[in-house]
Amino acid sequence: MLEVLVLKIEDPDCFWVVIKGCSPFLDHEVDYQKLNSAMNDFYNSRHQNTEIKPLILEEGQVCVVYCQELKSWCRAVIKSIILSEDHYLAKCFLVDFAKYIPVKSKNICVAVESFMQLPYRAKKFRLYCTKPVTLHIDFCEDNAEIVPAKKWDSAAIQYFQNILRAATEVQAKLCAVEDDTFEVYLYVTIKNVKVCVNDDLVAKNFACYVSPRKNEHLHLEEATFNIKSESFSSKLNPALTLWPMLLQRKDFQGTKNSHGLDFLAQSLQHTWCKGVAGDLGPAAAVLVKGVKWNMGSLRDSPNKKSEQQQQCVSLKDINKCVESSTYWPTKRGITIYADPDVPAARLLQFLNPDPLRADGISDLQQLQKLKSGTQQPVMVLRHKIEPCLTIDSSPLSADLKKALQRKKFPGPSRTESYSWPPIARGCDVVVISHCGNDPLLYLPPLLTMLQMGCCYKSLPSRNGPLVIIVCPGWKKAQLTFELLGDYSMSSRPLHPMFLTIGLHKDEAKNMKLPRGCDVIVTTPHNLLRLLEYQSLLFLRVCHLVLDEVEVLFSEANEQMFAILDNFKKNVKMEERESAPRQIIAVGVHWNRHIEHLMREFMSDPYVVITAPEEAALYGNIQQVVHLCLECEKTSTLLQVLDFIPSRAQKTLIFTCSAAETEIVSKVVESNSIFCLKMHKEMVFDLKNVLEQWKKLSSGSHIVLALTDDCIPLLAITDATCVIHFSFPSSPKFFGGRLYCMSDHFESLTEQGSPAEQRDKKPKSVLLLTEKNASQAVGVLRYLERADAKIPLELYEFTAGVLEAKEDKKANRPLCRYLKAFGFCKDKRICPDRHHINPETDMPRKLTKQALPMFGYIKIIPCYISNATNYFGRIIDKHVDLYATLNAEMNEYFKDSSSKTTVEKVEKFRLYGLEEKTSFHRVQVLEMSPREDSWVLDSVLVKFIDEGRTGLVATAQLLHLPENFSALPPQAVEFIVCRVRPADNEIEWNPKVTRYIHHKVVGKLHDAKVVLALGNTVWIDPMVHVTKLSNLRTSVVDYNVRAEILSMGMGVDNSEHVEELKKLYKGAKMPTSEEALNQTPTPPSTSASSPLLSAEDTTCLQGSKQENCGAERGTGSETKSENSAPETLSENPGDISASRTLQPQLKSFHPQIKWFQKDDAVILKIKITNIKDYKCKYFRDRVVFSAWVGDKFYLADMELQASIVKEDCKCIITNDEPVITLPKEKRGSWCGLLRQKNPNVTFDFDHWEECDEDREEGLFSKVLKTWRAAETRKLTSFPKDSGMASVRPARPRLSRGDASGSG
Q: Which GO biological-process labels does this protein carry (predicted)?
């Protein structure tokens, strides 16, 4: 049934309609809109040009005219011409709108060929076998009767018009085609009642039914396509409604101009049905042959012309081609089906109306049968499958069909039509298709299967799923879960569950499935963790779905086979004998793991492969590649050819042009090999080439050189070798070439031993030259999947190509995965940059200074992109320019007169934006105009000081004064290092991102800078610190990295920073040595980063030590700036210079305990068994270094006060180094170091010694006097008086005084 829109009604024998929807008869409506737009653009600019004005005007001529009513140029046919005083007036019929309009001759232009490629939009219909009647009165017999009439009376026409105008829906069933008219049964829906108009007119005595006359319609057995027919111009052939260009050509009347024939041949091969994959089939090839023959006849001499004019191409030939190609070979368990979506079939259905007649089989099924023989097959099936071509014929439940129709589902695709039936029957199925990542390939029939509750009665009566869908990542699993939720509403409650489990064992142990949960959607790692602790939950599983199966096996191979082993064990239980057991594997690519899956875990599986290049991998085609120079291709070709074959060989050599085909054929023939050739200019020789190809004796070798556009014409499937002399222009053509060997595709059950396979394997040979450098990566990937022998030169060549591609990405952003994790899963296909560009990656400036390359900073995350990627601001403790700017902006915009809206928005300009009670600076990124208006509706903006983006109305944008634009954008990208998602995921689970968002957004954090590039700063650690003012100390509330790890959704990524710094060194960035070799010194000595307090620095270092202690051993890990401490300059002023010159070395800071005397400070280095140590002394600094085993220890200490460096010494006492530092000035130090260090602590074992020294220094004279007085008193009292000696109270030392910094 065709849904139609009625344009014009003359009578029931002539009314014009537009076919709506996805009909096979028409291109989409959007194509006509594009056509009208293109015609208006072309003729509006050129209609005054005399070159496009017709030389003469004739009735029946096709032209383009300007319609005043439609204000548009339209395609038209001239019906009549009237001569007026100063011009001609033509009555024209608009073939796309079914209108008659008068047009002045000046508004008539020649129809350009490119505008005549679409069929006419308006189609002429009439009621099938329905003729008018009238009342005939016989005065002689004195009676009246109703008899057939020659024309419709006005009452019948009026009734017909009224019924069509009142209809809410009009449908037509196509029964026949005569001339340019479609004969139909017409159905209308009025007030929800469907009526057949043919029957209604007969019932109302407006018409009667008549039997179709035998000679009324075109019959395939009798009609011929004779382009010399005299009646051709008077009666419009139905084929010409498809090809209107032929109407204006006089080639068919014998003129010498053959341009129209050229157009027909080219159109048949190239222009019909844009967007539909495929080329011509054999039937259209015969038509092309006829056209080409007639083109030749017009060019031949007059003597030959008279003989050739009598020839024609019989439609019987076309029918034979259709019949011969409908049934493709079925061998060795593989069934090959033709593509049901064929462009040339549209022409055939007009030339052969018989299959469209109602005979118990639906029109669409007839059409599919007709189409099936007109293109090379692109289906490889193991076991024969009857496809479901419509939703109505699909094996789905009624509720599910309605749900699909409500969601405007267009109908089963080519792959779905073959995969749905076996899945719905519960069979094991493997589906490989270019659309193999679409869950709708398996969800509808699987949901239908779940509706049959009787299938699962033998299963244990316990809670547990019936279906497990395994997806390669959480994103795909979430998409599948959402689709499942949409469509499961139309079935019984399934209670589906999206399963995600962290790495913690308790989470898997405590996981509870919802009661009645029949479907689980998850990933391999999550499922395996649950299986480990709750295997009994999966005793009821009947259906295991592997979504994107090739990705599952490549990224989680061990986990997948563990899951399959568990499934195989469970389904073998005796009590499950009557329950379904099904494995469904869908994917885009074929690989060797799928072979193992089919052999070991599937039972007689159905295989559906709709990608020819993947079918070649399944069919075990041997892939060979030869690298050569473009100038050496011919000699390489001769080396490849087998001149003395041991068995019969048929070789196809594919070229890119007719000229190259001629050259190749001559070269091959010159080497004594029989060579045929075929290209578009030799279509006339098609029959001869096919006959020669089939004549092949044992031990002989035949070669055919051809171009890609000849593949559907020849329909060869028995080639034993394909040589790609020219590189295929697309994967589609590559697959088409390989499909020429489909007779030799082997099913897995037919494949013999490796030795036997090598002897009889069909072979594909690819010649790769420097011209095909851009395709080398794809070729390598394909050969790897084919397990082919790959020459070392190809790896080297590909590496060079990848390097060249990487160089071309200099202006692309740095790969976000490389930034976030230190690696990219597949650089070969990633569009972003994977190297550091010194020009674009220099740290940008926030104010007058660039982003800090090292040191400690305070940050506020404003926008959380994911768990480790944030955008926010760096807070300067002393001068916060953004805070000043924000206060000024708020003050400025408080005045309503300052809020000036923007009249014209410009892209990439800065504007102000009011959001709640604050104002922001925003930059316009994209603009979306309203339809039919230049006024902008909404714009995409970026908050340049926060990093987030959003859509806002243009009316919200405010003019921003220049002084507010001076400060550079303050939003900086922060990346937390050394942690990545678990389970080899490359995207963070939303659960983690949400948790981190609530934890950190808008809060002040302390962080240590590891690296800075462009606008990105890598930090490790990032902590939130709370200061306890009463105790003069700070505590770390949380460490972001530790929080992520604690959720069980992330794992350690220890190589993250190292990989980034390798790239940094390799880029030879300016001052990179200085930036990387400097120790992150406290910000008080660094002018490039904001200041932090000593307490904050201690907290950060302590946090770092906490994170790394388990991995790095004793002491916190740092980057040493002094691998050779003895090279330090003795001049303190040269210290900074010496730091930057010394190489980088991984070192550990030793634990140090210290105490003091009045004249010296003593340091105990708490390491033993040292091999070598060095100690350098400066006026206010000490550098100690030592080796213990293979660990290098370094302590660089800036002292609180000055020492006498000449008198300092370091000795080994009790196997530990002890350093004595004489004080320059006697007295007590409040602390040892200028800045706190968690590895330096006070030695409380020497507390009493310090007290004695301190007391002696402070109260020596007073105590001596006091003790003398007490002695005198004691001598004057009796011994038993009970008085005891009194010692003065010892002053208490605060915790701060006992610490390393005081």
A: germ-line stem cell division; meiotic cell cycle; regulatory ncRNA-mediated gene silencing; spermatogenesis
How far is residue 553's CA from residue 470's CA, in Å, rounded to a whole number?
11
Query: How many other β-carbons are positioned within 10 Å of the β-carbon of residue 1109?
Result: 13
Instruction: Determine phi and psi for 76, rounding to 5 degrees.
Output: -150, 165
Complete edge-to-edge strand list for the sheet that includes strand 582-587? 330-331, 334-338, 377-382, 606-609, 429-432, 582-587, 543-547, 467-470, 519-522, 497-498
Q: pLDDT tens for residues 1215-1248? A: 889 999 999 988 888 889 988 888 898 887 776 5
Q: Rounded to an integer, what distance in angstroms lies between the CA atom of residue 941 and that of residue 913? A: 10
Name the residue among 18, 350, 365, 32 with its Cα closest to residue 170. 18
- Residue-wise pLDDT for 829-876, tens only, equals 888 989 888 888 888 887 777 888 888 889 999 999 999 999 999 988
Closest to 1051 in 3D by CA, of 990, 987, 984: 984
What is the average pLDDT value for the chain, to the nearest integer?
Answer: 75
Distance of CA 589 to the CA centre of its chain: 15
What is the b/e burial string over 723-736, where b = at least 16 CB atoms within 10 angstroms of the residue's CB?
A: bbbbbbeeebbbbb
| DSSP string across 1064-1108 | HHHTT-TTHHHHHHS----GGG-TTS----HHHHHHHHHHHHHHH
Q: Which pair of structure tokens corresponds to residue 762? A: 């069909």
Decide: helix, strand or coil at residue 423.
Answer: helix
482: part of which helix (H) or strand (E)? helix 474-488
Write out 1216-1268 in H/E/C secondary structure: EEEEEEEECCCCCCCCCECCCCCCEEECHHHHHHHHHHHHHHHHHHHHHHHHH
One-letter identity of residue 536:
L
- Taken in order 241, 244, 250, 256, the sign of the CA dihedral is negative
Nearest C-alpha neighbor of 1024 from the set 1078, 1058, 976: 976
- What CA–CA distance (Å, rounded) separates 1251 from 1157? 10
Through-space distance between the first and last CA atoms of the chain, rounded to whole angstroms: 92
Q: How many CB atoms lie within 10 A of CB 658?
A: 17
Handedness of CA 875, 878, 882, 887 (dihedral sign): positive
pTM (2 d.p.): 0.59
543-547/224-225 β-pairing: unpaired
Residue 128, classed as helix, strand or coil, is coil
In this prediction, residue 175 carries a pLDDT of 86
Q: How many CB atoms within 10 Å of residue 739?
A: 24
Residue type, 574: E
pLDDT at 1118: 29
258 Cβ neighbours under 8 A, 6+ residues apart:
251, 294, 295, 298, 299
* pLDDT for residue 502: 87
State the pLDDT at residue 1142: 37
At 120 the pLDDT is 86
Q: What is the pLDDT of residues 499-542, one digit of tens each?
A: 988 888 888 888 888 888 889 999 999 999 998 888 888 888 89
In DSSP terms, 1230 is beta-bridged to: none
Alpha carbon distances (Å) from 733 to 376, 412, 442, 633: 12, 25, 28, 20
Distance (Å, whole) CA 345 – CA 355 = 12
Residue 673, Cβ neighbours under 10 Å: how many? 19
Using N-to-C axis directions, what is the helix angle for 633-640 and 658-669, rounded to 10°? Answer: 50
Of the candidates 241, 262, 39, which has an alpha carbon nearest to the alpha carbon of residue 270? Answer: 262
Buried b (16+ CB within 10 A) or exposed e, 913-938: beeeeebbbbbbeeeeeeeeeeebeb
Q: How far apart, in whole angstroms, are the C-alpha atoms of residue 714 and residue 100?
A: 46
Q: How far is CA 153 from CA 146, 188, 210, in A?
A: 13, 22, 18
> What tokens appear for 1176 in the block?
């350098």
Cβ pair 954, 825 in contact under 8 A: no
